[in-house]
Design brief:
- The structure holds two protein chains of two kinds.
- Chain A is mostly helical.
- Chain A has helices at residues 7-29, 32-58, 74-85, 91-101, 108-111, 114-124, 165-183, 188-199, 214-243, 248-253; strands spanning 133-134, 137-138, 150-151, 160-161.
- In chain A, 58% of the residues lie in helices and 3% in strands.
- The longest helix of chain A has 30 residues, at 214-243.
- By secondary structure, chain B is α/β, with parallel strands linked by helices.
- Chain B has helices at residues 2-12, 22-30, 35-43, 47-53, 64-93, 114-130, 185-206, 235-247, 251-256, 278-286, 296-299, 303-309, 319-324, 331-339, 349-366, and strands at residues 102-104, 138-140, 144-148, 151-155, 159-162, 168-173, 214-220, 227-233.
- In chain B, the strands form two sheets. Chain B has a six-stranded mixed beta sheet, with helices on both faces. A two-stranded antiparallel ribbon of chain B has the order 3-4.
- In chain B, helix 7 (185-206) packs across helix 8 (235-247).
- The radius of gyration of chain B is 24 Å and the shape is globular.
- Chain B starts with a helix and ends with a helix.
- The relative contact order of chain B is 0.14.
- The chains are: A mainly alpha, B alpha/beta.
- The interface between A and B is medium-sized, with 29 and 22 residues.
């Protein structure tokens, strides 16, 4: 339950603080009469504050729909956004998804160190958490792909990035977002704006932002996805096979030292 | 070559090597006769710092704001699997729907070293040219190399797009706006020349027929962040560049002519302050001949220093004046000839006559 503190009670609290300081100063300065007068004023202010509080207790509690400050820890917010998208994504997109659909604040600056923190946590105590936010690996060198976050519980083939994967994942995410928009009762303008950013860059996605419908966006994305899907899948599965030979920590966070390059590239 | 690299390192001193880029190459080729610029650039000297140390700070260059905005626009255009760029290039270059593959060449498994990156870029681009069916469509930040007057210059275009007909296009993403289908002519020209340097480097690697003479410029449209793509024909710039590059005196002969102990080191102390006296640096600079022209002011950080050094010389009045006054080096000399105070040498007869006539006309008008 959330109480909205009225300005009356707040103002009284400030006054009480001031009076307390004044009383202390008067006492230490030896000004007995002044101290007594101030003490009287202080007691009156405290009584008024109690009355104000009683009034608030009688009012019905008001639920603030969107609260400042996060309700969930950052890693869970990111996990939530990535789960919705269904593919590795960059911090900017994760934040946009979060703002479109979820409650609470997500602080961009903290995202930049998230992957490093997750790796440290994994190294100190492997597999102790139900999931980790990890890297996506480049298919050729199995190095961490720049600027992408993934979820450790996803299959390896989803966590590697082949040459077609950036576009495939974009189309995939468009479908997931469109389906989500259709599911929730009141998507809101932020969510629609997010979907438009996808639709505008998919052939046949939408004629305009106003005319956009999630169903059409999903259909258009699927139409193009069909063209790339098989080739992308075979790249990813070949890379995943090689990646599964790496030690666990490198499967999650990539290998930087050695280069296990695929033959023939 | 090693000896040359040693000499260049010695000239540069203790500072880190300042990298060449397409802008500096373009500027270099617009004033090929300037040995000072050629040596400073080949040695990787930070000309901005040098100019400030000798008391003539440069007044141009991109502001931090412009750089940040440029990076942000580029990131936006490339975000989400190159979503916006793909839409633009499908339209502008006629890419087929299946052409969406991408390769990021900004680093090699985390390694950002120049040689490593260049080797990989070279490998990826040449194999794409050899086997178009197995090629990707976007090559992001490839590292190219060009021989400029005997020194190796690494160049990094924003993106190179490979079309199914087997031709590469250079794509440059710039943050100056195209408003009502028009952009700042100077900026477009600079972008065109810069892109031409990349085209040249790519052609040297892959062959002329594999690289288009049209580059794609991606800029924000009107006052928004919406990108718009335009094809720019850079054949003229390519001709000029090729011509100028071949005229650049080999850097070896320039360096050989210099005293072996010459160095432009600024001798930074522990606090990073430069302890070498400016007068010493100026003396060292004086050993390397410059060729100042007013055009330098827009392209070289040393321009103000060289201009002051050249004051009183006819060269500072511009190329056309200099050509007309061929053989007359200083303004004082020209005036003297015009007034008939100085007697001309044999090779100055024509010029002197022209000057005297001009003085007479001006004198009669003024009188």
């Amino acid at each position: 339950m959330v109480f909205r503190v009225t300005s009356a009670a707040e103002a009284l609290e400030r006054r009480i603080d001031e009076l307390r300081t004044a009383v202390r100063k008067a006492v230490t300065a030896g000004e007995r009469e002044r101290a007594m007068a101030l003490r009287g004023a202080l007691r009156r202010a405290e009584r008024e504050w109690e009355d104000a509080l009683d009034e608030l207790a009688d009012q019905p509690a008001v639920l603030v729909p969107r609260q400042a400050g996060p309700l969930l820890p950052l890693r869970e917010q990111v996990h939530q956004a990535l789960t919705l998208l269904g593919s590795p994504a960059a911090p900017k997109l994760i934040i946009a998804v979060h703002e479109a659909f979820h409650v609470g604040e997500m602080v961009p600056a903290r995202l930049t160190s998230l992957r490093r923190d997750e790796e440290r946590s994994f190294r100190s105590s492997p597999h102790s958490r139900p999931y980790y936010l990890c890297s996506a690996l480049t298919a050729d060198l199995l190095a961490p792909a720049r600027g992408l976050l993934a979820v450790s519980t996803w299959p390896m083939a989803l966590r590697v990035i082949g040459p077609l994967s950036p576009r495939v994942d974009f189309l995939n995410s468009a479908i997931r977002l469109a389906e989500h928009l259709d599911r929730i009762p009141e998507p809101g303008p932020t969510a629609r704006r997010l979907l438009w950013r996808f639709a505008a860059n998919i052939p046949g996605g939408a004629a305009s932002a106003d005319a956009m419908t999630p169903t059409v966006v999903a259909q258009a994305a699927e139409a193009e996805l069909k063209i790339h899907r098989d080739a992308d899948r075979s790249h990813r599965e070949a890379a995943a096979k090689r990646a599964r030979q790496l030690p666990d920590v490198e499967q999650l966070f990539g290998n930087r030292l050695r280069s296990i390059s695929a033959t023939g590239t | 070559m090693d000896n040359l690299q040693e000499r260049l390192r010695h000239i540069r001193g203790s500072a880190a090597e300042k990298r060449h880029n397409a802008r500096t190459v373009a500027a270099l080729t617009s004033n090929p006769g300037c040995a000072r610029r050629a040596v400073l650039d080949a040695a990787g000297v930070d000309k901005d710092r040098l100019a400030r140390h000798v008391g003539f700070p440069a007044k141009f260059g991109q502001s931090q704001f412009a750089i940040t905005r440029g990076n942000a626009f580029e990131a936006q255009v490339k975000a989400n699997g190159y979503a916006e760029l793909l839409r633009l290039l499908r339209e502008t270059l006629g890419l087929e729907i299946r052409e969406v593959g991408s390769t990021n060449l900004e680093d090699v498994g985390g390694n950002t070293g120049q040689e490593v990156r260049h080797a990989r870029s070279r490998q990826k681009l040449t194999s794409a040219a050899a086997d178009p069916n197995a090629a990707a469509t976007f090559y992001d930040h490839p590292l190219l190399r060009l021989d400029v007057g005997g020194s190796r210059v690494y160049l990094e275009p924003d993106l190179v797009a490979f079309h199914h007909d087997g031709v590469f296009h250079v794509v440059e993403i710039k943050s100056f706006a195209v408003i009502d289908n028009q952009a700042d002519a100077r900026k477009v020209a600079a972008a065109a020349t810069q892109s031409a340097v990349y085209v040249l480097a790519l052609r040297r690697l892959l062959g002329d027929d594999k690289v288009a003479h049209e580059v794609v410029l991606v800029c924000p449209k009107d006052f928004s962040n919406q990108p718009v793509a335009t094809k720019v024909d850079v054949r003229k710039q390519l001709i000029v560049l090729n011509h100028q590059l071949s005229r650049l005196t080999r850097i070896e002969s320039l360096v050989e002519a210099l005293p072996p102990t010459l160095t432009l080191d600024l001798a930074p102390d522990d606090d990073g302050k430069f302890s070498r006296p400016a007068a010493e640096v100026i003396a060292a600079l004086g050993e390397i001949e410059a060729r100042y022209a007013p055009g330098c002011l827009a392209t070289c950080e040393m321009a103000f220093f060289c201009r002051q050094e050249a004051s009183g010389c006819t060269a500072t009045l511009g190329l056309s004046v200099r050509e007309e006054l061929g053989g007359v080096e200083t303004v004082a000399e020209a005036l003297g000839l015009a007034d008939g105070i100085l007697v001309e040498g044999d090779d100055q007869a024509e010029v002197a006559a022209m000057l005297r006539t001009t003085a007479r006309i001006f004198g009669s008008v003024a009188a």
